[in-house]
Amino acid sequence: MSEIILSIRGLHKEYGTGVKALKSVDLDIRKGEIFALLGPNGAGKTTLINIICGIVTASGGEVLVEGKNWQTDYRHARARIGLVPQELTTDAFEPVSRTVAFSRGLFGKPRDDARIEELLKRLSLWDKRKTIMMHLSGGMKRRVMIAKALSHEPSILFLDEPTAGVDVELRRDMWDLVRQLRSDRTTVILTTHYIEEAEEMADRVGVISRGELIAVDEKQALMARLGKKTLKIMLVEPLETIPPELSEWNLALEDDGHQLCYQFDSHAERTGIASLMRRLSDLGIAYKDLATHQSSLEDIFVELVHGERASA
Ligand SMILES: Nc1ncnc2c1ncn2[C@@H]1O[C@H](COP(=O)(O)OP(=O)(O)OP(=O)(O)O)[C@@H](O)[C@H]1O
Ligand SMILES: [Mg+2]
User: What is the pTM of this model?
Assistant: First the structure.
């Protein structure tokens, strides 16, 4: 799985408005992998994808698709890449099957009814093949967009927010589809806000924040970091300092000494909570409330950016 299918070097983008949407991004995508790009709104995910797909012009840097420059070998890149954009645009009055078949033709591929039939069946669109686009639900339209993007048999598929605003069922279908694509050795790069989604589907995850790719990791490694939780212990009497008897838990004192915070790994076999509570009781430190807090993606960003927290 180490053959590099897509290589991004020093890619940056400053929009006409002066917004620096990407700041020198380097990234290698392996053939056949599912790569999830995670990041908050405005992080630069769509900009990155749109540059690779030739929809937005880069301010600098380069992209190699199977080793060929994506601008000088534009036709090569275009034939290899399929894109399901974040914003759905559809040909309102065309029936589903014609929309998909037409898309294939745009890439100079010969007509292939069997291929289109297979694709529509796979996306549960076969029953809707004669329905005009306007009459489809949003979720169905999204499926058609995927069928269009796959119509010319690309080797790299970009899915920009494939499950934003879709129901649970369609989200599951989408995950199944991505897994199917993986078994065909199609490389998939998707963007998402949902950790859960990256966890379900991705082999590797890239975290992008303010135009910078701040982490690229195997999913397992990143998820381990995402498994961090914080236990907040609200004390009856405030503490001035953390007693040395509690040093092994690496606690933090917050809220003017009214709150002890303990960070633990929720995936670990032993979280250390039980022993901590026993020790508190031994020391006669009384508490009135407890709360746990799961690290959010934002927390992880902060952590990644500052590289602060030591791994517990
Ligand atoms: N056409 C444009 N002109 C000017 N600025 C833009 C344009 N498109 C995007 N931007 C800005 O570039 C930054 C990155 O936007 P981008 O759409 O790439 O983010 P994103 O990660 O895809 O966000 P979202 O999760 O909301 O889809 C944002 O600050 C955005 O406002
Ligand atoms: Mg976007």
Answer: 0.79
